[in-house]
Every structure is written in C-alpha cells, then in structure tokens.
C-alpha cells in the first residue's frame, strides 16, 4: 500500500501565525522556497519529509500534530449537522466535508455555529409560549454547550494547566500536599455532616468537606479548591484566551479547568503515563496506585495528549440511564454525536445490566476502523439512607491496533472479523443498510418502500 500523503496546510498556517513569522521567514527556516510554502499552506502540495524534519529540528514540533487535531471532529460534527432534515437532499458529499475541514477549518466552525443557532431558534419556536415569557431568550450557544465544545476542540488537553498540576504534585501525597497548601493560604479544612460535597467560606477562609464522601472524592475536592485559590491567575489567563460569549460560560469553564487541575494533580502526567504503560492500562490497578476512582482514571487516560509524550489515543464517554451523553471526548477517529445519545449497539448501554463488572467489546464503525471498548457502570451514592443514587455508565476504548498495550484485550479474538460488532455514531449519519436497531433513515441513502413486505424496518436502505 502506498504511503498516504500528508496535507496539513491549516496546521502550517496556524503554527506560522503563532510564531509571528512572515511566509518568507518561515520558508527560509524550513529550507524551502516561498512559492513551495504557499502551495503547502493551501494544500496544493503535501508536506514533504524534509519539511517535517525541519519542523521537528527548528521548532521542536511533535510531527504527529500535523496529522491530528480538529479535522476528524469537524467532519463528524458537520455530518451530524447536515443530517438535519432542513438540508434534505442538498448535503455535500463526505469528500467535500473533508476538504473543508482540512483547508478551511474556520469556515467549518462558523457553519457549525450557524447550525447550532438555527437549532436553538427552532427549538424555541416549537415552545413559543415559554420562549416569549423569558427575558433571556437568545440564539447564542448555551453556556454548557460552549464550554463542552471548548474542551472538545482543545483535544481535552490544556497544557499550561496540566504542567502546573504536575509541578504542584511533585512526589508528595496528594491529600497531604493539598491540605498543607491550603493551610499556607490560611484556609482551615473541616469534615462535616452535609449534603454538599464541598463548601468554601471565603470570609472565614474555611473549607468544609462532606464526611459522607469517599476518600477519592474528598481528595479531588481538596485539589479543586487548591486550583481555585492558588492557580487563579493561570485559570483566568486560560479563560481570557478562550473568549467565552457569556459570564455563565466563563464560570462553568473555570470549574471545568479547576476539575482538570485536580485530576492532573491527582494523577501527574509523567508518573501516570509511565504507570499506565507499566500495568497495561489496568484501570483498577491505576485507581489503587493513585487513590482515584475508576471514572477519574478512565477520564485521565483520555487526556494524555501532551505533544512529544502522548499516550494511547483513547475515547471516553459517560452516559446516563436514558442514553444521554453527559461527558464525551475522543482522541481517536471515533467521534460522538453532539446531540442525542450513543449508538444502542455499543456495550456502554449494557453496563447498567451488570453492575460492578467490566464489559469488553470488539466493535467496527462504518468507516472500517476497529476498536476495543471497555464499559462499566458507575454508581454515586448520596452517602445516607434515602439519598438518591446517581447511576451512569462509562466507556473507554482505543483502536484495536493498540491491543497489545491493553490488558483488557487479552484472550480476545482480535484477528477474527466476525468478532467485531457493527456500531455507529448517529443513525442519521450511519450508512449501515441492515441495522436492526436503526431509529431513523440515513441521510445519504435512498429508501425503498414496499407496502407488500415488512422486514425489520419499514423500508429498505439502498
């Protein structure tokens, strides 16, 4: 098979802009002519091996960054947006979407923002009586969606915050380090009987933690408070860079960044990556070693995307019992639906049926990519009799080519084609013809309706 050519014009332009170099100066540092650089930046020519080496030597670039990034996410998100019935038969082919994502990512994001505004307006009109009675009726993204997309397109890795957390952790015990830091800041830590997990009284500089919470949760909340107090300038600078559209989105994102710091301090990048490789990504061993929960470990594994020191690209998702995705991230080519739930054929939905057990699945998406997926239920008790129990299921997975590095792939028949279950992303953009769980027809296929025959579906996908 001939090697695939690398087109990375958007990445080259982005890097040159970040370095504040003119095309002439950038071309000189790469050892190429100005016209040649111009052609590469416009994807008229692939990036040559010589240029790749020059980028690594001259600028210390992790060359894997050239073939990664937003493209797969943008393509997936555009396909989902174009599955909206408003586009009917006018949706562009997949090849055009890939060209747009690679050549004009800013245009792709503008289209997604426009479609999101349309969707929100349409939903408001559908409940006009309610919308007219609200003073905050608007078409900008909801704060939650805006923050979700911020982390989504940052690859769920925030370098400055991650490195600050790693520096803070050092080699000390996380709980002791957090309490010591808070005491140095004049904060008194108390464990009390209360429903909330954490309450900080800024006036009296007192931090209260629920004595019902698990030790893992208590440590996480301590580290989160450290982030909010000691790393406030860093968090605010990151928020300034993100340029959120509302104060609510900024406030939600600040909590998200503080949570990120807490997870990164609990599981420092270098030590956690080495431990994950050593135990072949055994979630239970990692949870015990770092004093974290299974969910915290799974989420952390999906963030190990530091340039020059990347872990295995994982996807991570959390769903509730209704199938709604409440957390999602993918460093793989598998992308999740922005709206609605996950594919019902995915093992994450079956995790609720087998509490306390890991479920393994070999799965294949319509593009032919094969994955190993691990799912487990996660129950979060209220800590007392009668308190509500929150139940979720989480899934963690990667491409099957990484099976040798994953303990959960042991004894699975990864070379047997029939062992792979067909899964998709969203019914509207899934092109499988014979899926027995299909809820709506696929966007890019014609349908055949036969009134004399009824199969699994009331139509046939051609």
From TrEMBL:
GO molecular function, one term: DNA-binding transcription factor activity
Every HTH cro/C1-type domain range: 12-66
Keyword presence, Flavoprotein: no
One GO CC annotation: cytosol
Domain of life: Bacteria
InterPro entries linked: Cro/C1-type_HTH, HTH_RamB, IrrE_HExxH, Lambda_DNA-bd_dom_sf, ScfR_C, TransReg_Diox_bact_type
Keywords of the record: DNA-binding, Transcription, Transcription regulation
Gene3D superfamilies: lambda repressor-like DNA-binding domains (1.10.260.40)
Segments crossing the lipid bilayer: none
CDD domains named among the record's database cross-references: HTH_XRE (cd00093)
Family: Belongs to the short-chain fatty acyl-CoA assimilation regulator (ScfR) family.
Protein name as it appears in the record: ImmA/IrrE family metallo-endopeptidase
Originating organism: Parasedimentitalea maritima
